[in-house]
Amino acid sequence: xxxxxxxxxxxxxxxxxxxxxxxxxxxxxxxxxxxxxxxxxxxxxxxxxxxxxxxxxxxxxxxxxxxxxxxxxxxxxxxxxxxxxxxxxxxxxxxxxxxxxxxxxxxxxxxxxxxxxxxxxxxxxxxxxxxxxxxxxxxxxxxxxxxxxxxxxxxxxxxxxxxxxxxxxxxxxxxxxxxxxxxxxxxxxxxxxxxxxxxxxxxxxxxxxxxxxxxxxxxxxxxxxxxxxxxxxxxxxxxxxxxxxxxxxxxxxxxxxxxxxxxxxxxxxxxxxxxxxxxxxxxxxxxxxxxxxxxxxxxxxxx
Length: 303
Known about the structure:
By secondary structure, this protein is an alpha+beta fold.
């Protein structure tokens, strides 16, 4: 179910002579179903209008749901309700990724790198996902080595339980280990991705406990945490955050709020991070220049 035409802005008449109010949700829904050829099995929820990034347009979020799958689109509606824009609207004096940054919460997430670094990466990942494995191993091998002191990485659990039967149990185990010894989480993270193909719903817990013994963790404490699913609420919190960001696939990585869906090769990620560092440096330089005051010096010779 792919409704979003990314980067395309289309303006058109919505309500014609039948509009009764500035936003008639029934008419709006009927128009969208016709425009996008959406079958009746798909449920559509239209949020109330709220202030948009442009003063003369209201923002309306529309949610499309079919079974366990869901997507969200953003529309901008004119004051009279007769024109809409489908796509994105930006204000150049604001961070284009601020809506994503406002939703990303990293205070309790496993992390590595430099506090206060100019580039922050937040990764929503699934321990059973092959693409997540490739991305995770590449980031662990290259990120800090290539950008020492310049990056901070946060891990978020987003197990796709409908297709990955042991992913959520693995996520619970990871948070149990993080509770017991935060630094050990990254050893677990690397181990479970490296051994992904050998794991299944039947042997996962025994394999994790076997690994924990080799890592000198408290196996009894870990076993109790797994048996009681003591950290499941933490996983559910990550999942809820991911849904608020309309994440539908893993891995989904945010680099200073910029969304990247899928496994990007390291050379592409490196280029994006370098561009972000250049942008941050240029922005800081421009900010400094804006506040410089140059006092003329009559004793200085002119060239």
